[in-house]
Amino acid sequence: MIKLYQFHPSGNCYKVRLLLHQLGIPFEAVETEMGTKGTRSLEFKAKNPIAKVPTVELEPGVFLAESNAILWYFAEGTPFIPTDKLERARMLQWMFFEQYSHEPYVAVARAWIAFFGTPPGKERELEERIQKGYAALDVMEGELSKRPFFAGERYSLADITLYAYTHVAEEGRFDLARYPAIRAWFERVQAQPRHLRITDAVPSAAR
Amino acid sequence: MIKLYQFHPSGNCYKVRLLLHQLGIPFEAVETEMGTKGTRSLEFKAKNPIAKVPTVELEPGVFLAESNAILWYFAEGTPFIPTDKLERARMLQWMFFEQYSHEPYVAVARAWIAFFGTPPGKERELEERIQKGYAALDVMEGELSKRPFFAGERYSLADITLYAYTHVAEEGRFDLARYPAIRAWFERVQAQPRHLRITDAVPSAAR
């Protein structure tokens, strides 16, 4: 069975749980702590030299890392990837936007505020990250004012990717009241078949 | 003709020039400055709300952004994307690694040191970025000690992506002497048919 090495509250790990559940693919979750006893241990780096979760073990000894690449792997040939070439590239555009212009701000602010504490001396950096997080949310609001989902008319990996940290952005003290298009999109994402919440345990069918 | 909005010394823009040249796809380059007169102008944001270069105009009014998504768009169905499903996902893994764990450190250090100056008060942040850049180079060295290219036996988009800023990392004062596997890979990348250097002008055949 597929193993998902994960930290449950991580949005990057949640992306993978959500897609696997929506695809009906069973998996086993292996909770993995950050730091030198977990992702930074020599044992874990032998699985994934990038030393991060999520990491999936597809079959014994075969590993794949980077949340959005994992999503791609499992979604190939399914309706989660658009069949139109430009829409497919547009989907990837928003997935790269998420990793470069959204996650380092929205997710890191949440991680510091809600989970690990702001590292000493990083208070000003936190403010900068919140400011850049709002810039990413502004871009999302603009797009969602024009179309229902990021790649076009249909729910795709781009929506899973951007939903993961945006819907819990308030845990990083982002005020989402000012983003009506984003909040309406939350409802469209949550209305998809077999939706799973970030706090939901790994489904028993998938254990 | 395809238009590439770009800043010529940017590695992200170079990726697109290199692939288009290797594919023999003609394009016109439109130099675009950063900041409120360029990428942050309302006019440019109407093309790309993420407000960054590279941005390509595929046909009049149809834009695509994010360097690695642009590479994907043009490379679909070509030998630059592996036909094996796992190798394809592995290629994407390294492309997401590049945007999350490499570019913000290796490219930003170079941009500050070689082009724009380190922003006031960011001297300590620069040191942190250099440290994390070395961590990314360490990961690359480990991979390239095991296989000739990032996705496996063949040159792919992952190599274009990671070559772009790594081969000019010394402009960000990274010492590459300690990375023999990376330097040997530089030679393999440079030996590919129709290689283009970052300093090369847009090829006249492509003007």
UniProtKB/TrEMBL annotation, chains A, B:
Pfam families: GST_C (PF00043), GST_N (PF02798). Coiled coil: none annotated. Residues 84-207 form the GST C-terminal domain. Residues 1-82 form the GST N-terminal domain. It comes from the Bacteria. Belongs to the GST superfamily. This is Glutathione S-transferase.
